[in-house]
Write a structure and sequence with these properties.
single chain; 222 residues; mainly alpha; MetI-like fold; 0% strand; elongated
Length: 222
């Protein structure tokens, strides 16, 4: 029986590879968008106007403190009630982008705030504009603090993307659920699902470990 199930599973590999492509595409789009937005919000949260910092902090705390599944359901099921209709794939990308942006915002803000205030004051006294201070002084010193947890956040986002299967996105997890209906050997099917997620995440984990080691020994200069 196991041989029959294995043969059926091998026959389903094209579907799993398609699901792998969907997972990778959603993750990449969300990571790029989340990184851009997160860096922008993080810079403002670390040194912007107080009311704006308060608003950003409130939104970040709300997103980080609520289940991603609930956020996904709101975007996919509740937004249409107010006239915003999104298909499953755009809803998934939007939800994941928002989630990653909020976590990246905190990582960036923490890295910026870790730079000694005295150096910022010295740069301001030297006549550097706020943009010049951020570009030439603050960010080069903050990046060694920001990069390792940032890469780790990328891995978490890829794993969180498995939730989007509940709204019908045919990612790896969704393909697994569909396959297990035909091959009632859950360990075999979802073992393959786990392996495929590992294939995506492991290179990023290795890169994160390498990055931390190089940062520790000062091999990177910004």
């Amino acid at each position: 029986m196991w041989g029959y199930y294995l043969e059926q599973l091998i026959g389903s590999l094209p579907l799993f590879l398609k699901g792998l492509g969907i997972t990778a595409a959603v993750s990449i789009l969300s990571l790029v968008g989340g990184t851009i937005i997160g860096f922008f919000l993080g810079v403002i949260r670390a040194g912007g106007i107080k009311p704006v910092r308060f608003l950003i902090g409130g939104w970040v705390d709300l997103i980080r403190g609520t289940p991603f599944l609930v956020q996904l359901f709101i975007v996919f099921f509740i937004f249409p009630d107010v006239g915003i209709h999104l298909d499953a794939l755009p809803a998934a990308v939007l939800s994941l982008t928002n989630l990653s942006a909020c976590f990246i915002c905190e990582i960036v803000a923490g890295g910026i705030l870790a730079v000694p205030a005295g150096q910022k004051e010295a740069a301001a006294a030297s006549g550097l504009s706020a943009y010049q201070q951020m570009r030439y002084l603050v960010m080069p010193q903050a990046m060694p603090t920001i990069l390792p947890p940032l890469v780790g956040q990328y891995v978490l986002l890829i794993k969180d993307s498995s939730v989007i299967s509940v709204i019908g996105v045919v990612d790896i997890t969704r393909v697994g659920w569909l396959t297990v209906q035909r091959i009632p050997e859950g360990l075999m099917v979802f073992g393959l699902v786990g392996i495929l997620y590992f294939i995506i995440c492991y290179p990023i984990i290795r890169f994160s470990n390498l990055l931390e080691k190089r940062m520790k020994f000062g091999k990177y200069r910004f």
